[in-house]
Amino acid sequence: LRKVGFPVCLDDFGAGAASFSYLMRLEVDVVKIDGPVVKDAQKALRGRALLESMATLCKNLGIETVAEMVDDQFGLDFVRKCGINYVQGYLFGKPDANTKSFNMANFSHLFPHSAHASTNKW
Question: Residue of 78, 92, 109, 117 with fewest CB within 10 Å of its CB?
Answer without folding.
Answer: 109
